[in-house]
Amino acid sequence: MKVGVTGANGFIGQHIVAALRKRGDEVVAILRNRASLPDAETRIADFKDPRDLEGVLAGLDGVIHTAAHLPKSYADPGEAKACIEINTLGTMALLQACVQSGLARAVVFSSGNVYRPGNVPVAEDGPIDPSAHAPYYLISKAAADFYAQAIARERKVGVAILRPSSVYGPGLARGMVPTFISKLEAGQRVTIQNGGRHRADMVYVEDVASATVSALHSSAIGPFNVGSGTTSSVLEVAEAIARLLGVPMELLDILAPDSTMGASGFSPLDIRLARSSFGYDPREVHAGLAAYVDWWRARR
């Protein structure tokens, strides 16, 4: 299968490229700039005009859309315009080009953090409320998700919409997990805000990549949750990393819970539909963190 991957040089995109090649697929990198991907044909696209994108999709059997605008600050309303232009309108343009070029299969990345926060695993038909955290980014992803669902329902393209939760793993440049690992390995103290009560459904990047390739090669359409199926707190993650690195727990400065903040976080994802539709089988969080720490240490 000849597969175009938007954002092929990004954190998740690189792992998807590796998973596609492992399966024997031919990869075409679809990028917004002149950067290239080793040993892959590269095509340039700005994701604005479906007519231009038709040429970019020529000769492909499927496309995986991971490219997105990630704000420098998720709380900055000044990022809203770029989020809508790239994440929402760019996805719409790409899917319109898929329709016009007769492309049979597409996998589009949404987000598993668009749901209303809660403690019970939420299924794909759960309430969408992207305004609680990172609103400008998540609203743009939710809007693209809804449009992709419309295309899928109309059977114009076989679109699978993946909703990954909090993705971590080799190559992640910023975020909680790499920050904890780098500081604790160096013997530096880590401050844990609000008692470390914030919770998120954390999923290892290689499991996301595997799910993406499996979804592409299936007949699955519509939205699918791609998480671990449970949440982990910031404190649990920090303690797990400290144990894996073999450093003293005293390096964790745990600030007392803020009574005005509550136990914030994202909902755990119900992943049964992805399991039954294309065999999704993620590892549990401790195993993922162990693999990440092993990779981190192997780089030295």
| Count of DSSP strands | 13
Q: Give the C-level CATH assignment of the domain at 2-169 and 204-228 and 267-282.
A: Alpha Beta
What general form does the structure show? globular
- What order do the helices and strands follow? EHEEHEHEHEEHEEEHEEHEHH
CATH superfamily of the domain at 2-169 and 204-228 and 267-282: NAD(P)-binding Rossmann-like Domain
Question: What's the CATH architecture of the domain at 2-169 and 204-228 and 267-282?
Answer: 3-Layer(aba) Sandwich
Unreliable runs? none
Q: What integer value in Å does the Rg equal?
A: 19 Å
Q: State the end-to-end distance.
A: 36 Å
- Structural category: alpha/beta
Q: What is the strand content?
A: 15-25%
Q: What is the count of DSSP helices, taking H or I runs of 4+ residues?
A: 9
The strand order across the widest sheet is 3-2-1-4-5-6-11
Q: Looking at CATH, which topology of the domain at 2-169 and 204-228 and 267-282 would you report?
A: Rossmann fold
Mean pLDDT across every amino acid position: 94
Largest sheet: 7 strands, parallel
